[in-house]
Amino acid sequence: DLDSAKLELKEFIPHVKNISDNSIRKMAGRDLARFKRFKNQGIAVKFGRFTQKENYQIQKNIEEFLLITGIENAEKLLFSYRYPEEQKTIQRLKTEHQFCEKLSEGIPRPWRLIYYRARKIYDPKNYKGKYSDEEKEKLLRYQARHGNDWKKISGMMSRSNQSLARKYSEIKSAVNYGPWSTEEVQKLVRAVKEVIRKRLEEEEADFLPSAESPSGDLLIEREKLYQNLPWTEIETQVGTRYWRQCKQKW
């Protein structure tokens, strides 16, 4: 049941309240048992940047799965919609040989994040270099027509979903690429402080300690100041920088 799943997942994912019910149901099936096994081994669930060791493990898992199933390459495995004539066969093999379990083997992270990382590693369209002015114009035009359907736009532009989403985030508004002004830094600090305070109110038990300093500032674990922050929301509040700039500056 959904409430029980939320309660159990909260032990491993403090921000579970911010996750949609549909995603929680999927995580309960794909991740909960894995998380418990990792806990018994004394291994904590991780978020943030993937390590080189984890990238190698993903590659190892993919290669082993290709050998087991006979699927020709990782692009067909991870982007089967690009091969409509083979898609049903690929999906059947993924189900029969438990693709979800095999891909996440040995990696203490939510399955969805592992899957997205694997797609980023193996997508040949993810390494096409700098966008031309013509591509930027096409991206804006297609997004206006199809919204954030990056899968569809990817097929039209031969760029990866992730690359298109990032580039659109960069060019969708007037963005400053020069040195940060004092005003911009102040906006960034206020935006981050606001989302952290909001999160603290929602999940007070997850922030230790939750007392205030003599100056009135909240005393929060250092990791909570930079892990899993809603950067697109912060981008909107800063206004003149895209989310990746905000994250790097912070």
Automatic annotation (TrEMBL):
GO terms for cellular component: nucleolus. SUPFAM superfamilies: Homeodomain-like. Residues 123-171, 172-250 form the Myb-like domain. One of its GO terms (biological process) is termination of RNA polymerase I transcription. SMART domains: SANT. The lineage of its organism: Eukaryota, Metazoa, Chordata, Craniata, Vertebrata. InterPro entries: Homeodomain-like_sf, SANT/Myb, TTF1-like. Gene3D superfamilies: Homeodomain-like. Pfam families: Myb_DNA-bind_6 (PF13921). This is TTF1 factor.
